[in-house]
């Protein structure tokens, strides 16, 4: 699925690619809710003046990234993963920043998995995925430092692929993306938007 | 005589650690990267083995393993210290970002570090101490990044990725008898080619090296815990 799916909601959503059932369900959810949805097509410009929601669906897993240091890590698979997970995401954000600056929502969404939490992981394999996503987590934090003062907010999400059905995960993600997080009047101490968090499809918060 | 392999030994903390371990009676395999720096060779110690090593290059890592095997079948400790550092232009709103810059940082600081351990693991398995030591940085702490403003991406991203790699090594190798050290050395002065220190920076790398050498070799009561500590042995979050 690529191209522009027009809705009557004035908010524009960019989805950087449809690579999984989850991505597909999330795109359909936004369409069903009347958003104007753009799905990136190689080499094509968007033909739009602003973007509100930026949904980066880059979440690359290489089939040969499953070895431990005892078995021998496949370093080509690790490189391919790094060239996607943080590097492609960096390029995508840079490319769309002018359109996002012009948008109202300025909300950025990224995918991860809790196995890429340095404080939680029990992994002994998947060096490419885990290390590249940890680098992405750092990228998100550094970007937040720069962009939050300009009105940007962030969502980082684990769809729990294989544990939660893709459609249900997309429902969780849609709510998470489109709603503001806990805030009480102007009380900064009761504003959860200031906290960068990873949430999963079951509504659990994970450590970085 | 215990054996240690130290990367990035041309100057700075790596060089200081070589001096420390030679003084403590260790045999030191020192990774040499900078062709035009001769401070390492000038240590001229019979227990010092200088080995050419670019940790960003798989072939160079494989050759370093062969060089160690010519001298010994067992290593007790690896100190992974080499790193690409410095100011680079890789920020939002300064397009185009050259993505080969962060890739170089990942390749050297994160992937090279883990690849080196993977390669030397069979030799480490033969050693007594089985200690894996990593020089990281508070700049790689995701938890603390909120304090850092808009810092350039590559270095912090690479050190965070390295920390993850070390966590994964720990998940697997602790049960095989390995123990781990991760340090944040603090803001150290750079050592120039003539051996003198630059003005900027807080610590003389020799001072940090003295502490780190002791911290690396001294057993801890909580070896099972992976911790990043500074020279006061305060904990830093990941
Ligand atoms: N200095 C600080 O304030 C500070 C703070 C926090 C953490 N650290 C960490 O402490 C460690 C040592 O820092 P230092 O201040 O002693 O730095 P340093 O004096 O620059 O020593 C690091 C050495 O590693 C070398 N190196 C770079 N790329 C390499 C590669 N591909 N293969 C092998 N060696 C390579 C460097 O050579 P080149 O100079 O030619 O690149 C340099 O000789 C690093 O891991 C650093 O990230 C330093």
| Strand residue percentage of chain B | 5-15%
Biggest β-sheet strands, sense, barrel of chain B? 8 strands, mixed
Show unreliable segments of chain A: none
Q: What is the helix content of chain A?
A: 25-40%
SSE ordering of chain A: EEHEEHHEHEHEE
Helix segment tally of chain B: 5
Mean pLDDT metric of chain B: 95
Written overview of the protein:
The complex is a heterodimer of chains A (208) and B (238). With 208 residues, chain A is of the alpha/beta class. Chain A contains five helices and eight strands; from the N terminus they run ββαββααβαβαββ. Helices cover 35% and strands 15% of the residues of chain A. Chain B has 238 residues and is α/β, with parallel strands linked by helices. Chain B contains five helices and eight strands; from the N terminus they run βαββαβαβαβαββ. Chain B is globular and about 55 Å long. The mean pLDDT of chain B is 95. At the A-B interface, helix 2, helix 3 and helix 4 of A face helix 3 and helix 4 of B. The structure holds NADP nicotinamide-adenine-dinucleotide phosphate.
How are the SSEs placed, and which strands pair?
The complex is a heterodimer of chains A (208) and B (238).
Chain A: E1 3-5, E2 12-15, H1 21-32, E3 36-39, E4 53-56, H2 75-84, H3 87-102, E5 107-111, H4 127-147, E6 153-158, H5 166-178, E7 198-200, E8 205-206
Parallel strand pairs in A: 2-3, 2-4, 4-5, 5-6, 6-7
Antiparallel strand pairs in A: 1-3, 7-8
Helix pairs in contact in A: 1-5, 2-4
Chain B: E1 3-6, H1 12-23, E2 27-32, E3 48-52, H2 58-69, E4 77-80, H3 100-125, E5 131-135, H4 153-173, E6 179-183, H5 205-217, E7 228-229, E8 235-236
Parallel strand pairs in B: 1-2, 1-4, 2-3, 4-5, 5-6, 6-7
Antiparallel strand pairs in B: 7-8
Bound molecules: NADP nicotinamide-adenine-dinucleotide phosphate.
Residues 7-8, 10-14, 31, 33-34, 53-56, 81-85, 108, 135, 137, 185, 187-188, 190-191, 201, 205 of chain B line the site of NADP nicotinamide-adenine-dinucleotide phosphate.
């Amino acid at each position: 699925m690529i191209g522009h799916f027009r809705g009557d909601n004035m908010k524009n959503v960019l989805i950087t690619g449809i690579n999984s059932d989850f991505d597909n369900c999330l795109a359909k959810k936004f369409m069903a809710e009347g958003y104007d949805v753009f799905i990136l097509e190689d080499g094509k410009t968007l033909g739009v003046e602003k973007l509100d929601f930026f949904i980066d669906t880059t979440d690359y897993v290489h089939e040969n990234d499953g070895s431990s240091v005892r078995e021998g890590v496949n370093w080509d698979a690790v490189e391919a993963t790094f060239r996607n997970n943080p590097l492609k995401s960096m390029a995508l954000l840079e490319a769309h920043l002018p359109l996002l600056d012009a948008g109202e929502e300025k909300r950025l969404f990224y995918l991860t998995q809790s196995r890429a939490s340095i404080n939680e992981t029990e992994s002994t394999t998947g060096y490419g995925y885990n290390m590249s996503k940890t680098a992405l987590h750092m990228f998100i934090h550094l970007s937040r430092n720069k962009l939050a003062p300009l009105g940007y907010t962030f969502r980082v999400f684990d769809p729990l692929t294989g544990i939660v059905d893709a459609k249900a995960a997309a429902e969780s993600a849609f709510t998470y993306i489109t709603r503001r997080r806990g805030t009480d009047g102007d009380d900064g101490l009761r504003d959860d938007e200031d906290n960068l968090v990873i949430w999963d499809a079951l509504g659990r918060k994970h450590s970085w | 005589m215990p054996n240690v392999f130290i990367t990035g030994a041309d100057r700075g903390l790596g060089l200081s650690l070589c001096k420390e371990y030679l003084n403590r009676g260790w045999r030191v395999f020192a990774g040499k990267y900078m062709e035009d720096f001769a401070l390492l060779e000038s240590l001229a110690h019979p227990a010092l083995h200088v080995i050419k090593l670019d940790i960003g290059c798989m072939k160079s890592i494989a050759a370093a393993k062969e060089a160690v095997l010519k001298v010994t079948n067992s290593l007790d400790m690896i100190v992974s210290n080499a790193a690409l550092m410095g100011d680079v232009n890789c920020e939002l709103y300064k397009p185009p970002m050259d993505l080969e810059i962060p890739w170089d940082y990942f390749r050297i600081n994160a992937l090279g570090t883990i690849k080196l351990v993977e390669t030397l693991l069979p030799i480490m398995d033969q050693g007594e101490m089985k200690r894996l030591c990593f020089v990281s940085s508070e700049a790689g702490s995701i938890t603390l990044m909120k304090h850092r403003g808009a810092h350039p991406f590559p270095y912090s991203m690479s050190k965070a990725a390295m920390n993850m790699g070390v966590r994964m090594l720990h998940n697997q190798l602790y049960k095989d008898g390995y123990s781990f050290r991760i340090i944040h050395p603090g803001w150290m002065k750079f050592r120039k080619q003539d051996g003198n220190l630059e003005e900027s920076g807080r610590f003389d790398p020799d001072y940090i090296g003295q502490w780190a050498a002791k911290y690396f070799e001294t057993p801890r009561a909580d070896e099972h815990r992976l911790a990043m500590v500074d020279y006061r042995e305060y904990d830093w979050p990941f």
